[in-house]
Task: structure prediction
Amino acid sequence: MDMGRVCIDHQRIHLENFSPFLQCHKCLQFGHMKTRCTSQESFCSHCASNEHQISDCPVKNNPNTAKCHNCHSHNTQFNAKADIKHPANSDSCPRLHAMRDRIANRVDYGSA
Ligand SMILES: [Zn+2]
Ligand SMILES: [Zn+2]
Ligand SMILES: [Zn+2]
Result:
């Protein structure tokens, strides 16, 4: 039991090292930064438009226009119906939660 608690505490420390964990501001994918981005496309993190970025988003102040690029492409890919009415960098994004879980599960104390 004590071992388990120690591991969880370690995970929390590791997760904080990832925080805010990497999300590309250009393509909105996780795990790399804009400067390392190899994507040809960029998307608005607010409304998922590929014609502008968040800094030029004409509707970024209107929460009703939020559309998550990651959830939208997940829905398209897996024929899912996840809620997409949130910005791609929203804390309520289920893709972000999935990524957070994946990072937590990947934490390895021996070989990291
Ligand atoms: Zn990128
Ligand atoms: Zn936009
Ligand atoms: Zn989302």
Notes: The chain has one domain: 2-106. Residues 2-106 form one domain.
